[in-house]
Amino acid sequence: MKKLFGTDGIRGIAGKYPLEPDFIKKLGYAAAVIINDSPGKEFVLGCDTRESAAWISKALIEGITAAGVDVFDCGIIPTPAVAYITSSRGSSAGCVISASHNSAEFNGIKFFSNEGIKISDDKEFEIEKLVLSKNFNKSEKPAGKCEVSDNYADEIYTKFLYSTLDKDFDLSGLKIVLDCANGANYKIAPEVYSHLKAEIITLSVMPDGKNINKNCGSLHLKNLQNAVVENNADFGIAFDGDGDRCLFVDEKGEIRDGDYLIAIAADELNKNGKLKNNSVVATVMANFGFYKAMERDGIKILSSAVGDKYVHDEMIKNDIVLGGEQSGHIIFRNFLNTGDGLLTSIQISAIIKKSKKTLSELSKIIKKYPQILLNVKVEKKIPVSENKKLSDVIKSVEKKLNGNGRVLVRYSGTEPLLRIMVEGSDDKIINQYAQEIAKSVEAE
To answer: What's the CATH code of the domain at 377?
Structure first.
């Protein structure tokens, strides 16, 4: 069982174990030994805008180069850009320093394979085993070198993004609000949308190392909603801190999450005969209304565990080109092997422009079921099946729903939280049911 890695790499408070300089050096060395398949190849490295990124990056580079592996340091750049650059340069691995949607005191480290895919659980376990080994010894290989990218990495990535659109296509005539979360997309997203000739209004594009995700971005949409309505914009887009997800707000200020975005993209691909195997992948968190909409349109849904790497695993296994999460991690596998907020945003923006419809009109593809999501802090992650009181309450609620809704209770892969989701036809009733489940946990 893994001790360090969660559903999205290693994450914690910067400066506290395991995110301490000496341990990070060991981690960098171990990752270079385990992932790198031949001497002399390189790791591509990138980070978001957290102030702790500088010293974490320094420690990682020391560890990786000590294993005789070179580093191509992209600096501040979206997570999916590292994935793309890793595969396009023929590098042996990619590494990102970020805690995604978490606040600035957190940070994290995640690794990508040479194909730009998040490394497997097995590979993470191998790294853990080596780094935690009492017999951990560094070899005496010649040190690798570190090359710092100027604008080269940004240019490679933006060129790739433009290549995913029809030649000479642009977004002229659209007014779009961008909330960049004071994160990795703060510079590159406005540049991309300006290049595509959209009229843009920007929010949260002044990172100071401490304000990433602070009352902004994909988890805090109020400012974006207000800006869209006040500026009479066509729609708004919110990214998270590391840029691997996005959410939309329509012209009326209504939030359009990943369920809507996947459904809209699936419909477009289906119409054009590009939805391979007539299927999409969604996680167990997808709304019941999403399942109903896809079923109505003859599109099959395959379900995966929460986490975009598990979505991708299911996509590979079944040769599917579109999949994602309600949170806005969406994978267009015909372009890239990981969730990409900026890529998703331009694909959806292009669909809106071509359709000559508003986002609220396109969103009618789904009629969402009421859904209640609660997070309960826990000290220990006791398996749900082993917690009799919790299990009994869940069974009781499922019986009351009688097939007209569902319950999902799971632990967060990155935080000490139990996540409770209840769906059904009546808001008040499902809220009551969710509270019942939460109280059974709090009473423990």
So the answer is: 3.30.310.50
CB 54 within 8 A of CB 97: no
State the catalytic residue, choosing from 87, 91, 100, 349. Answer: 100
Q: Which domain holds residue 405?
A: 371-442
Contact (CB, 8 A) for 239 and 218: yes
Q: Is residue 4 a part of any domain in this protein?
A: no
More confident residue, 45 or 289: 45
Helix (H) or strand (E) holding 46: strand 42-47
Question: Does 18 share its domain with 97?
Answer: yes
Whole-number mean pLDDT of the chain? Answer: 94
Predicted pLDDT of residue 38 = 52
Tell me which of 235, 255, 275 is where a domain ends: 255
Identify whether residues 378 and 408 lie together within a single domain: yes
Per-residue pLDDT, 1:
58
Q: Of 343, 365, 387, which one is at a domain's C-terminal end?
A: 365
Does residue 225 contact residue 289 with C-beta atoms inside 8 Å?
Answer: no
Residue with tokens 């994290």: 108
The tally of domains found in the chain comes to 4
Please say if 100 is a catalytic residue: yes
Q: What is the pTM of this model?
A: 0.89
Instruction: For residue 319, count CB atoms less than 10 angstroms from its CB and return exposed for 0-12, middle for 13-18, buried for 19 or more.
Output: exposed
pLDDT per residue over 309-359, tens digit each? 899 999 999 999 999 999 999 999 999 999 999 999 999 999 999 999 999
**pLDDT reported for residue 60:** 98
Asked if residue 193 and residue 79 are part of one domain, the reply reads no
